[in-house]
Write a structure and sequence with these properties.
about 60% helix; mainly alpha
Length: about 260
């Protein structure tokens, strides 16, 4: 008897390809957007129109942010190995970590853990959310850790993505507990940290994705999915208007030897 390998995703035979039991060619191509399909693949359910709008907004928010380390890595790798598009793309994606892109997952996990500690009893007022947020920020500072989703190296006052995504989620009736808690952190953290920091776009994306019911342990994957498109755009621009060599030479020609004992 042949072994069976069960899957609810894609299967195929000589004449058909099926995804979620649907005929890929007849039922899905030209009828399902890529963002909708990405959501479906992870959640194992088709998103509502409102969920699709929020999800697509997250993908747009995370696709590109200029010459970030991930973009620079992709461009310089492409300079070094123009025969390996996949290598340049992978180099950029591998840079998605705790400082760039990974904040989406880190923030979602942080908020999820705080909410889990409430044992299902959620606040019903802004004051109640502020109290929960204040306790969470204090506990995080006491533990010597940073609150993910606070601060940005470029947007020092307001990350322009944050209020827009909150508005879109609210319009679609999807401003859930993760976003409510994240907003409260934005209101109260100054009382603990002694300075005001913006709620960054990566963090609000994590909160919005968690409110969509997506697995918080996989939220970084959505950030990488979005950034893959942005990195491909960076590589395409590198082909049209190359600057990778200038980046390399700017560093190499300005390298200054320092005796190891001086460091």
């Amino acid at each position: 008897m042949s072994p069976a390998y069960p899957s609810s995703l894609g299967t195929s035979d000589a004449d058909h390809i099926r995804l979620f039991g649907h005929d890929l060619a007849d039922d899905l191509m030209g009828k399902v957007g890529f963002g909708e399909l990405a959501f479906w693949l992870l959640a194992a359910r088709r998103p509502t129109p409102g969920e699709s709008r929020v999800f697509e907004s997250v993908l747009v928010a995370l696709a590109d942010h200029g010459f970030t380390p991930t973009a620079i890595a992709a461009r310089v790798t492409y300079l070094s190995a123009p025969d390996s598009l996949q290598g340049a793309l992978a180099a950029g994606l591998l840079g998605g970590g705790s400082r760039f892109l990974g904040v989406t997952e880190d923030c979602g996990l942080f908020l999820h853990e705080v909410l889990a500690g409430l044992n299902g009893t959620l606040p019903t007022t802004d004051e109640g959310w502020d109290a929960v947020a204040l306790a969470a920020v204090r506990a995080t500072k006491t533990a010597g850790r940073f609150v993910p989703g606070l601060g940005h190296p470029v947007h020092k006052v307001t990350d322009p993505r944050t209020p827009v995504l909150i508005r879109i989620a609210s319009e679609e009736g999807l401003r859930g507990p993760h976003l409510r808690l994240f907003e409260a952190i934005g209101r109260v953290h100054e009382q603990v940290l002694g300075r005001r920091l913006p709620l960054n776009g990566a963090g609000v994306c994590g909160a919005a994705l968690a409110d969509l019911g997506l697995p918080v342990e996989l939220l970084r994957g959505f950030a990488l999915l979005a950034r893959a498109a942005g990195l491909l755009g960076q590589i395409a621009e590198e082909r049209r208007r190359p600057i990778g060599m200038d980046m390399y030479l700017a560093v190499d020609r300005n390298a200054v030897y320092v005796d190891p004992s001086d460091s």
